[in-house]
Design a protein that fits this description.
This protein is α+β, with helices and mostly antiparallel strands and about 110 residues long. The chain has one domain: Glutaredoxin, CATH 3.40.30. It contains 5 helices and 4 strands; from the N terminus they run ααβαβαββα. Strand 1, helix 3 and strand 2 form a beta-alpha-beta unit.
């Protein structure tokens, strides 16, 4: 999540026209405390049963570094435009793909 935080201004346009919600199977209390400690500028959601991950083809119980994040880009009308059930957060190409998906749904923002 620190990579998302560190790239928030450029990748997520500093929140202009983009809402980032990080969902994990951690408890709401744990997520709240961690978000405050790390100064994350985005939202967190608790999904203890893994339903959100599973709905988009992700594995909520995966514990490795590579491919542990499901990433979904939804346009302003609420339509899912991009899904990767196993975002490879250590691969720079994955961020380029994500940036292109965000740019496609928020042009000129």
């Amino acid at each position: 999540m620190q990579a998302y935080r560190d790239q928030y201004a450029s990748l997520f346009r500093g929140g202009q026209g983009v809402t980032l919600i990080a969902i994990s199977n951690d408890s709401a209390r744990t997520l709240h405390e961690w978000a405050r400690e790390e100064d994350f500028p985005f939202l967190f959601g608790s999904d203890p049963e893994g339903a959100a991950y599973t709905a988009f083809g992700g594995d909520p119980w995966f514990t490795g570094i590579s491919g542990s994040r499901a990433v979904i880009v939804i346009d302003p009308e609420g339509v899912v435009r991009y899904v990767t059930p196993a975002f490879n957060q250590v691969d720079p190409a994955a961020y380029e793909e994500l940036r292109a998906a965000i740019d496609a749904v928020t042009p000129g923002t």
